[in-house]
Amino acid sequence: MKSMRLIGSLSCIMLVMAISAVAQPSSSPAPVLDSAGRPLQRGVEYYINPAITDSGGHFTLINRNGSCPFYGQENVSGLEGLPVIFTPFVEGETVIRENRDFRVAFSAATICVQSTAWKLGEKDPETNRRLIVTGEDEGSRKARNYFRIGKASVGGDIYQITWCPTEVCPICKFDCGTVGNLVENGKRLLALDGNVIPVTFERKA
């Protein structure tokens, strides 16, 4: 009788372990790779470059209307732009992974007394598209400062940047969107809810 109880107990333990193993992901999401095939690292400077030449130039700070905050993307290719630094949401993570939340900030000083971190900003009244600005989200979760990178449909080490911070707030319902650009008065602004810019990442030398 004792043997049967022992076997039964062991069977229950094995069943629980098997269910737990199935419930856990087999591995971490794939790392986002730079143009040299290396994983993007926390705290390292990178240039964000459009993968398609007619999508504008390198990402940088743009003065939209003569006042803060800044927006941005270069109008034409060939210019170096400004590097950015990525910071994963997961504490202790050193690699930027696909479809995981992170903060991104331009590595530059500005005349604005504010952060250069990307933030989901206001909606443009003419196009109804949500703009990407710089600054800190004043909300408790700071969800508007967190973005994601996923593979673009064109394949290879080409990606698209999205706003959908479900790691920051798993129970929140977000109106997610993918980053593209909006041309306004000859300037290219980063915006959601429209065209999509496939991008690559170039590590700063």
Compact description:
With 205 residues, the chain is α+β, with helices and mostly antiparallel strands. It has one helix at residues 2-23, and strands at residues 45-50, 84-88, 102-106, 118-123, 130-134, 148-151, 159-163, 177-178, 180-184, 187-191, 199-203.
Biggest pleated sheet: 4 strands, antiparallel
Q: Uncertain segments of ≥5 residues (pLDDT<50)?
A: 1-26
Total count of strands: 11
Mean pLDDT: 85
State the order of secondary-structure elements, H for helix, E for strand.
HEEEEEEEEEEE
Strand content: 25-35%
Number of helices, counting only DSSP H or I runs of 4 residues or more:
1
Helix content: 10-25%
State the end-to-end CA separation: 71 Å
Shape annotation: globular
Structural class: alpha+beta
Gyration radius (Cα, Å) is 21 Å
- Strand order in the sheet with the most strands: 3-2-1-11
Question: What does this 3D model show about the protein?
Answer:
By secondary structure, the protein is of the alpha+beta class. The strands form four sheets. Strands 3-2-1-11 form a four-stranded antiparallel beta sheet, with no helix packed on it. It has a three-stranded antiparallel beta sheet with strand order 6-7-8, with no helix packed on it. A hairpin with a 2-residue loop joins strand 9 and strand 10. The longest helix is centred in the N-terminal third of the chain and has 22 residues. The protein is globular. The termini are far apart.
